Amino acid sequence: MAASVTIKGVSKSYKKGVPVLLPLDLEIHAGELFFLLGPSGCGKSTLLRIIAGLLEPSEGKIFFDDTDITAVPPEKRKAAMVFQNYALWPHLTVFENVAFGLRAARLPEKEIREKVNDALKLVRMEEFASRKIPSLSGGQQQRVALARAVAVSPRVLLLDEPLSNLDAKLRDEMRMEISRVCKERSLTAIYVTHDRREALSMGDRIALLDKGVIQQIGSPVEIYRRPRNRFAAAFLGGVNFVTTAQFKGQPENKTLLVRPEMIEIVHTPKDEHCFEAEFLSGTFLGERSELKFKMNDGMILDVTASAYEDLTPGNRYTLRVSPENISVLED
Ligand code: ADP
Ligand code: MG
Asked: What's the whole-model pTM score?
């Protein structure tokens, strides 16, 4: 039921000569929770709308399983969409909102009732069936929107920044909920966000986009630990870009990435991966602190540590980075 999605050479220009998406290829497996991650304006929603059929690509083809659906209208694609602003009908009850797609498909009333109740149960909203939308919180509204999308047993579930309107605590909770729903129903889901934490915590795989180009595809761990280039490295987390001259035993003349949390402060130098640096300052952030050190050649290193009470600004300390925690970048 859940389909794989294959994107072949898809590009988009809204205005002639101004490409928003350059020709790109992508394969999303059936049952996968796949993320399109990138900064605002990089073309994520454009690609999602093309997959939904709401927008025509300038070039290229889209397949659901082996079927070319490029020319198939949106309502026949069996893709369901969840938006940032929920797009629920305020004058209808929760039940009727969730039933909407099923009524449009003219299913028998008994089946509609079953599917709506199932979907509401799945998102833990069964007690709210007769409520009107404006009486619900943002998080509850997003659960209803999710139930509506899942109720039609979509071949592909498309989510466009679904958590952007929620406060931080609710967002964490809804992340878990969306992951759970996708996995319980074995959905193929394509999730658009600019929030790296959402993509890293929920995604089976991530495609990182910048300026209409896929920069990298991989699992959250791969893409975080082994980013291909400076953009990918910096978009996914804290960075120190260092050089081969500063860190021995690395190939040729390349830019290297050392993540701030991969730098240890050690008491006594124990091997050739240790070096000295001057402690400059620290910022206490609760569960972690962000420290600045100056290397012998003057470069400032960002270091994440659990605490820094025992460090004195101006004093020199021994730092260490294991070679396996240094990544070689392409640019
Ligand atoms: P994202 O979702 O990654 O923030 P979008 O896909 O919405 O990015 O937009 C990508 C680019 O295309 C942006 O520069 C945006 O201004 C432009 N764009 C989006 N929609 C339209 C449109 N309907 N007409 C013209 N330009 C558009
Ligand atoms: Mg968008």
From this structure: 0.94
pLDDT at 249 over 70: no
**Mutate-to-test residue for ligand 1 from 46, 49, 51, highest number of ligand atoms within 8 A of CB:** 46
Element (H, E) at 95: helix 94-104
62 vs 50: CA distance, rounded Å: 8
Alpha helix stretches (DSSP H) within 160-269: 168-184, 196-202, 220-225, 230-236
> Model confidence over 270-283: pLDDT tens digits?
898 999 999 999 99
Nearest ligand to the C-alpha atom of residue 47 = 1
Say which amino acid occupies 139.
G
pLDDT score, position 251: 66
End-to-end CA distance of the chain: 42
3-class secondary-structure state, position 126: helix
Determine the residue of 10, 11, 14, 84 to mutate for testing ligand 1's pocket, defined as the one with the most ligand atoms within 8 A of the Cβ atom: 14
Does residue 238 contact residue 304 with C-beta atoms inside 8 Å? yes
Ligand 1 pocket, Cβ-based, cut-off 6 angstroms: 14, 20, 38, 40-46
Cα of 21 from ligand 1 centre, angstroms: 10
Q: Which residues of 196-235 are buried (b: 16+ CB within 10 A; e: fewer)?
A: bebbbebbbbbbbbbebbbbbbbebeebbbebbbebbbeb
Cβ neighbours for 194, distance < 8 A, ≥ 6 positions apart: 37, 38, 39, 40, 44, 161
pLDDT at 250: 64
State phi, psi for 173 to the nearest 5 degrees. -65, -45
The closest of 330, 159, 325, 324 to 237, measured between CA atoms, is: 325
Q: What is the DSSP letter of 3?
A: P
**What's 140's DSSP letter?**
H
pLDDT tens digit sequence for 173-204: 999 999 999 999 999 999 999 999 999 999 99
